[in-house]
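Key result, reporting period 2: structure in, sequence out.
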């Protein structure tokens, strides 16, 4: 389903649905500006519905007939902050989805660039749908007119970021019957037309020592791939983004139970996020160099699968004792991180992964956990999170837990020693990854919670959310705007 077209206009066009913002005031919702629809008593409507003007609140009324709109929607915008406008946009898109077009009268609401971006993002992200039905029933708006603001560049940015997010959602929502590692590689090529995309197949991965990706992928008849894509917008900084691309995670021989496997087509949400971010960064022509590595494999049990107790050699030579084949994400990521560190000379490394079931246990389904070796990088990502509306919370890299990854026969083991049981599982996973970052400024986003949503909620839609695209694009946009000397301030500090 195509996303609605969004345009700006100075005057209210003839549209079947017109929305007018309301804000909280004494005694209930206050209309922002005059309702330009004659014969409709907005004040009575607000009090009859006890509307409060809270973000996303909707009061609908039929238009009075004649040339007037068929429907008027009073939409609460709360404080009119970007977060509240994002909610309002999402609520409007859902309520108006049967209408062909919607006009939103913003003339009495002083929205700035970030407010307009948030409103447009909410509208567009909530309009996303994915369906493999023979006859898709879902309807979405075709045109939205934002009346008042003259902020075309901000609108264009929002559209670009939403397109990329929708692309990530499509990748995540694709069932794994179709979505093999090779399919993901071809989808990356299609998404990233105009950019350099290199795909390493299983033979090349084995030849070059990517032992983690090979081991995780060897149980499947559908072999692994390492996708490397580069955008070079100039500038002196090089950012490497790494994504976990497990196209289906059965757990391998350490098989997951039915329930735990149900959502595992989404275990490539990290790869989807970094690939789609690169699309957005290229479309925005940011003055940075960004390399994306997506480590793609299908984790299957079979006669060729890796066994608990096997020892593999990661890229760069470290050996890892695999005690649980379901802790596979860190094995594919370790190869990609080590490759980035040793071959790509990045100024900063960020990886994104649906890494641990323990992460949503700690933070719930909306927040990602962020682990960072640099306080400055953590602050940058926190700022980008607040601006983009993709929430995260910084987690500690607890040095005392590092010993739980010691193995008697290899350099590392892939799960925390039983002493820790599975407690702190997100932290030991992060500590495992850190071993492969060569002391560079690095952050790890564990998106096991927010990569998918259980329901249509605010700007999210049920299924893949594309979490990370908005956050990373906001971060890279801010980074690109800073003087180059700044990246050198990134220090490993934790
Ligand atoms: N892909 C899972 C993590 C996951 C779980 C993501 C639930 C989204 C929802 C990951 O590969 C995994 O299986 N992790 C194990 C690690 C354990 C074996 C140390 C986990 O979290 O149980
Ligand atoms: Mn797993
Ligand atoms: Zn996994």
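The corresponding designed sequence is given below.
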């Amino acid at each position: 389903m195509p996303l609605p077209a969004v345009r700006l206009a100075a005057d209210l066009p003839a549209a079947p649905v017109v929305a007018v913002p309301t804000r909280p005031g004494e005694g209930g919702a206050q209309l922002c500006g005059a309702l330009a629809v004659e014969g409709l008593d907005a004040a009575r409507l607000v009090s009859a519905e006890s509307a409060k003007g809270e973000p996303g609140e909707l009061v609908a009324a039929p238009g009075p007939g004649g040339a007037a709109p068929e429907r008027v929607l009073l939409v609460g915008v709360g404080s009119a902050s970007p977060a509240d406008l994002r909610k309002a946009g999402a609520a409007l898109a859902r309520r108006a989805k049967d209408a062909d077009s919607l006009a939103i009268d913003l003339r009495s609401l002083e929205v700035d660039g970030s407010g307009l971006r948030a409103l447009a993002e909410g509208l567009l992200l909530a309009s996303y749908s994915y369906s493999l039905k023979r006859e898709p029933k879902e309807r979405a708006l075709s045109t939205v007119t934002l009346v008042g603001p003259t902020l075309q560049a901000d609108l264009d940015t929002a559209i670009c970021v939403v397109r990329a997010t929708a692309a990530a959602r499509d990748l995540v929502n694709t069932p794994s019957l179709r979505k093999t590692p090779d399919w993901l590689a071809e989808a990356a090529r299609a998404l990233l037309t105009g950019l350099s995309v290199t795909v390493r197949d299983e033979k090349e991965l084995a030849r070059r020592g990517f032992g983690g990706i090979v081991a995780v992928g060897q149980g499947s008849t559908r072999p692994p791939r390492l996708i490397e894509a580069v955008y070079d917008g100039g500038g002196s900084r090089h950012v490497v983004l790494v994504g976990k691309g497990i196209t289906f995670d059965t757990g391998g021989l350490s098989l997951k139970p039915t329930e735990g496997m149900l959502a595992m087509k989404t275990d490539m949400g990290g790869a989807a996020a970094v690939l789609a971010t690169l699309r957005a960064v290229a479309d925005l022509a940011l003055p940075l160099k960004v390399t994306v590595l997506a480590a793609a494999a299908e984790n299957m049990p079979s006669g060729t699968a890796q066994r608990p107790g096997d020892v593999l050699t990661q890229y760069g030579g470290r050996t890892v004792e695999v005690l649980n084949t379901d802790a596979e994400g860190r094995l594919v990521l370790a190869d990609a991180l080590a490759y980035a560190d040793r071959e790509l000379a990045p100024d900063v490394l960020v990886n994104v992964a649906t890494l641990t079931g323990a992460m949503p246990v700690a933070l719930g389904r909306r927040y990602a956990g962020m682990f960072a070796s640099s306080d400055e990088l953590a602050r940058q990502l926190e700022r980008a999170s607040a601006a983009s509306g993709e929430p995260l919370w910084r987690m500690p890299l607890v040095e005392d837990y590092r010993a739980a990854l010691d193995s008697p026969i290899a350099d590392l083991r892939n799960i925390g020693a039983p002493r820790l049981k599975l407690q702190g599982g997100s932290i030991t996973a992060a500590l495992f990854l850190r071993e492969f970052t060569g002391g560079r400024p690095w952050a790890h986003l564990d998106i096991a919670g927010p990569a998918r949503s259980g329901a249509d909620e605010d700007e999210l839609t049920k299924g893949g959310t594309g979490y990370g695209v908005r956050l990373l694009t906001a971060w890279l946009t801010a980074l690109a705007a800073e003087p180059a000397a700044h990246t050198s301030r990134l220090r490993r500090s934790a």
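The chain has a mean pLDDT of 95. The first strand starts at residue 5 and ends at 9. This case is discussed further under Risks and Mitigation.
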